[in-house]
Amino acid sequence: MGEVNPIEIELTVNGETRRCRVMPHRLLVEFLREDLGLTGTHVGCDTAQCGACTVLWNGRPVKACNTLAVEAAGAAITTIEGLAPSPKGIADEAAWHPMQRAFHEHHGLQCGFCTPGMIMAAIGIAERHGDALDEETVRAELEGNLCRCTGYQNIVDAVLAGARAMTPAAQRGDG
Amino acid sequence: MKKFGIGQPVKRREDLRFLTGRGCYTDDLSRPGQLVGMAVRAPLAHAEIGEIDTTDAEALPGVHLVLTAERLKAMGVSNEIACLAPPKDGVVHGRPVLAEGRVRHVGEAVAFIVAESREAAEAARDLVFADLEPLDTIVDTARAGDPDAPSVHEDAPANRAFVWSFGDAVKTGEAFSRAAHVTRIRIRNQRVAPNAMEPRAILAEYEEGKGFVAHLGTQGVEGILHQFATLLGEPEERIRVVTPDVGGGFGMKSFMYPEYVLAMAASRALKRPVKWTADRNESFLSDTHGRDLVSEAALAFDEEARILGYRIETIANMGAYLSNFAPAIATMAPLQVVPGPYRIPVVHQQVTGVYTHTQPIDAYRGAGRPEAAYLLERLVQRAAREMGLAPDEIRRRNFVPESAMPWTNATGATYDSGDFLGTMEAAMARADWDGFEARREQARTRGLRRGIGMAYYVECTLGAPSEEVELHFTDDGRLRLYVGTQSNGQGHETAWPQVLADRLDISPERIEIVQGDTAAKPTGGGTGGSRSLQMIGNACVVAADALIARGREVWAALEEGLEAEDVEYAAGEFFSRRSNRRIGLFELAELARSAELPEELAGGLDIAATYTRPASTFPNGCHIAEVEVDPETGVTRMVRYTVVDDFGVVINPMLVTGQVHGGVVQGIGQALGEAVAYDEDGQLLTGSFMDYVMPRADDLCRIDFHFREIPCRTNPLGIKGCGEAGTIGACPAVINAILDALWDDGVHEIDMPATPHRVWQALRDARAAGDGDRRKVA
Prior knowledge:
Chain A has about 180 residues and is of the alpha+beta class. Chain A is built from six helices and five strands. Among the domains of chain B are: about 210 residues, Aldehyde Oxidoreductase, domain 4 (2-Layer Sandwich), CATH 3.30.365; about 150 residues, Aldehyde oxidase/xanthine dehydrogenase, molybdopterin binding domain (Aldehyde Oxidoreductase, domain 4).
């Protein structure tokens, strides 16, 4: 077996350009958590079933446990930490992404472990469907994200409310 | 009504960090110089261990240590995690830290590697050669006691760990001998995996001269501290246990596990931090499982369908070893509520705990009470069918009436309050019970079988009966509450301040809580048994009252001419009844800190207070499930779900609703899909989320949840607890609904999980049997 060498990649993480050397077998989720210290993205399984590791890749949700870090070269990755950063800190609810606010309002989380992945998946669902989103669609498209605490009902309600709040009309304040 | 007071749906403060990625779970922590721990697990369920050759593994670069049972013991570490609830006259084998002599379940750790990196540890894992001589296995609960079953422990004949019984066998026998009708049932309550989304993990740090700091996800730090001290042979003062954020526990994170001991021992040996984190496959192989019992039970009825007696014989699978509380879960845990909501004069129960070549069993959400409710509610439903009564009618005839409260049942437990009939009727109204037959007919036109099922459960809350809290005022003008329970995600950081702020009439913003750190609060019973709000909530009441009493004394001591009895407290202020003098709670605390106080008031306003519950509380409620079964495919769809619960006084309805939703879905999960499966050789067939059916968003319907607040009469707040209730009611409601849907097709029994295949097979078998009957007639 030949020697395996790290590969240099450049990518954007939470708006910041990063140039890093990573091993070719390093998973994106390991790179984010262990190399960049972005521990908001979680690992809940080893078979790409639970979705706790979901991040946005050029705005679209992907499971970071099922992606190599080197594949992300040139991509823009958004993790939960970078979703709505505020210089005033995490307590600045006004700066939160509408989906974060919706999860808070609807009690769409308990232990919080699946939550970052849920929110990323939810943003993808909202962007795919816009105004046309209904409960059945949310349930069907959350199929790739597991939650053991909430029974999903409040998550579904949060996704519907968050999606409404993400529409252009709602963002302008006239929705 | 106060905006943030008792009864308000106050939003959660812990959300701030969870929603922004700033939660801190054990694996999120890292230390400079940290090493990685990794278990080498047995690939066989039963084998004689010969030599364990670690030479090649140790020779790999980056490998610091390879532990085996022998080496662990040489380091002064005990190799057996004691069962903390050993059964009387039982054969007790605690869980080994590392397998010694034999392995007795797949996944049992035989060695533990400590290396610089995960890659190095993985490479070393492949180079540990354990010489394993395969032996015969027994995994099936019902067959574990068979004469030809392979033996798990030589000193346990018939693989019997214990036999436990309760009740009056003679009187129960008499009840059956004069019965007009007897309904019998044989039920398997299958093994399930708790599957908290956060896998177990530990970061162990040892520093010479100081001792240990362990960060790990627990359900309470005190119990873990005691066990660490015993296992490691260290005084408790040398060990600090910290539990940061926990990504779900459901009972499973209450216990001591081998990997925790190994990481601590390795850290002590190497003087380096050691982190171990399970991957999901390891969780399936090493976490305790829940349930796994087979019961034969019978109810005796008189001519009016009133219950005369109840008899239960259960075989409870313990797995290969007795985990911390396993024997109690199948025996004492549900005992108080074995008769459920019914007037049952006599009960007799026998439980045989058996060893098998499977993972240890222990508490899983509900811990014994879901098993008890499932058995009784399936029996009652079947009895109603046999006697031609409606599901509500058989319950009406047997419920303990509200007028009889407090009611002492056949096990000696006293239900302080409850209106079972009123709660059932409220649920029936919300579920449109009367309109069901029209929905059934409508479904039939679509080729589907629609069924409705009911379950009425009574729960008894459990756990340590006493809890102390401390209140300290901080330099920056806040009130800090120290508790010895541990949130696993339920929202404790929001709920405790809500109670305390309500009693002290101050803003909850000024209250912070400290939990999960033995250095800050060494005692506490932890989260489990639906106890936390009941225990800490009421301890907050006791503490608030003690704080106000102390404040009166302190102010009187500091203020010339003021008598304590003239001091009153309201709206966050002390004031004198005889003058216009007043002082805020926080100002007084600050004043007291810098003042000279008499000895009996030393410490100023910082106090500790203890609440001891006089009895279990008895949450209860009615679940009504509606399902549609496709007879062609066997697929069951949840179409309607109604819950009406009596949790006593509700502190935060938003949090309570979340608990019920989550609990119900865990119950639906067990009813429809979840099952840990082993093959005959004890190989785990469900080692990932691809094989183990977790409930997902699209498997479910909306849950209509409503609560009735019938105050508990045995605690100051009047609360009953809500953490496990959803899980307790859901399994029997769903299975009763499926049997209702399929009854006319000839399916009269089905075991969980009612997977499409099992339902399809049951329909097919029933059809074949029906054809056979017709042929006989012809």
